[in-house]
Amino acid sequence: MSIAEDRETPAVPAGRTEVEVAIVGAGLAGTVLATTLANAGRKIALVDPHRIHHDEFRAEKTRAEQMGLFEKLGLGPAFRSLVTPMTDINVFRFGKFFERKEGPEFAFSYTPLVNGLRSALPPQVPLTVGKVAEVTTGPDRQRLVLTDGSVIEARLLVVATGYSEAVRRAIGVERIDESKAHSLSTGFDLAISPREFGPPLTFYGTRVADRIPFITIFRIGERMRANMFVYRTVADPWVRDFRENPQKMLLELMPEIAERCGNFAIASEVDVRQVSLTTTQGHRRDGVVFIGDAFATTCPAQGDGIHRVLTDVDRLTTHIPAWFATPGMAADKICVFYDDPIKVAADAKAMRASIYARQITVETGLEWRLRRLRNNTARRLMILARRFREAGKPSDAAPAVTGVAFDRTDEAGQELPAGPRLGT
């Protein structure tokens, strides 16, 4: 199987290397996996076309649950040194303050995060800078040939190439669109300083026609960063207009919080990334494992992407010792990872939350109108109850909200349908 790419990048001198695990892709998934396996005493090769990870707009915030996984994988100190922690987050609904959500959460820029984790790679895992030209997989040995002629042989091949399709296609694995152009992520800096801004905030959209689930504004280092999620395609004229004059459109969309955001004066270009929901077909095969976005992609608005990546790394490192204890690397071993109930749960939760969050935001059928009415009625009663309490009236004088139930809520604040979750 061959790969042809146009990019020219430096590669290691030609030679032959034998390792236990070869990892292609040194983004978040590949770098964390390489570090974890090397610290466990495994011989690793980590291959990527670029010594320095290129600028890329990806996830910029994560939660305490993911910090727990970084800690479990032995990367807590490295991760903490690269992020900005935050505690209380002010949540606005209907243009008014709704609640103070306790953290912690952690903000970062994706490219410096990946480069920082690469710098923390154990010395026994040098980054091999090169492009894969050929891939051979089988039940016993896996073989990579790089464009400079060097060869890497391994018992196990891990593909952690994110959205890149070259290695996947060479192996014969297909990406399936579950929801094409599902959502759009935008990111931009605000001109206001963190000291002027105050606590981070999340502001939920109020009109179905806007197709905006929420905007969240937080500090990364000494700058204020905004992430806004939109259920539109990149070709939508609305997106073009927003990129040309984001301040004007934000002032119109969210006038109630404009002053607190420095009237939305923008201090950077608007980053935009279209996201499709995808799964993988044909991946249950000898000798090779797909992890992170190379296996499946979900919407970043729900905050589950990093959780899926770290869950994949955690579960894979759990299974590898048993795999290496016996000869061969046939598909029956590999499928233990894909069928791991914790991995299945994480993947299914992220996909379900991604689909439901869009439906509850933009669908106009009767079912979804009733769901929004129920949820918004309960929230308005909660706001009214708090006003009674703040006015000094006895708490039993506040309007009752029992019997007006929210749909189950995920960590990002999006409503999920009541009833059992899918696998994860």
UniProtKB/TrEMBL annotation:
InterPro entries in alphabetical order: FAD-bd (IPR002938), FAD/NAD-bd_sf (IPR036188), PheA/TfdB_FAD_monoxygenase (IPR050631)
Domain FAD-binding span(s) in chain numbering: 18-318
Keyword set includes Oxidoreductase: yes
Alphabetical keyword list: Oxidoreductase
Source organism superkingdom: Bacteria
Name by which UniProt lists this protein: NAD(P)/FAD-dependent oxidoreductase
Organism this protein belongs to: Mesorhizobium vachelliae
